[in-house]
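SEQUENCE-TO-STRUCTURE ENTRY
===========================
What this section holds: a protein sequence and its matching fold, both as plain text.
Tokens: labelled as protein backbone structure tokens, with as many entries as the chain has residues.
Question of interest: how does this chain fold, as expressed in backbone structure tokens?
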Amino acid sequence: MTTKERFSQAKALNFSVKKAWEMIAKGWGVNEWMLYMTSCHLDGNNRYCTTVDGKVL
């Protein structure tokens, strides 16, 4: 059985929704606006993000 974790975070962004989705789609910059993430990268169709406590999502 796989356990899924959920979290949420809010932060005001100083750019358009279109620009935000462009960043998300490319997989870069997620850790810039999600303070819970220290890094994110794409590997093929998969996005890997590392949290501040070292977990990889």
Summary: The radius of gyration is 12 Å. Helices lie at 17-26, 30-33.
